TrEMBL record:
It holds the Pfam family YbjQ_1. This is UPF0145 protein ACFFGE_02515. Transmembrane segments: none annotated. Gene3D superfamilies: Hypothetical protein apc22750. Chain B. It comes from the Bacteria. Belongs to the UPF0145 family.
Amino acid sequence: MLTTTANDLPGHRIVRVIGVTRGITVRSRNVVSDAIGGLQSMLGGRVGAYVKLAETARAEAYDSLIQHTREAGGNAIVALRYDANEIMPGITEVLCYGTAVVVEPA
């Protein structure tokens, strides 16, 4: 699956626009992550426990996006973006979205 944050895909021609495609996940922190993250935040710098949580959530949303695009018949995604919202304290929704398209080499 080809993906890009740009509106076109260099070296390829969009032959069909399928439409908006998305992948979503909802993740919550856990007691261990909060404890480790709290200690790391007191020391300053990178908070690895939360970085791992954020990366896992983004990967899940991206994988879901790819699956939805394939199911819709697309072979590429343009204008890919991420968004995240806190649903309630400690629970975050991560959305990955873009435009599903069919491309062929130019």
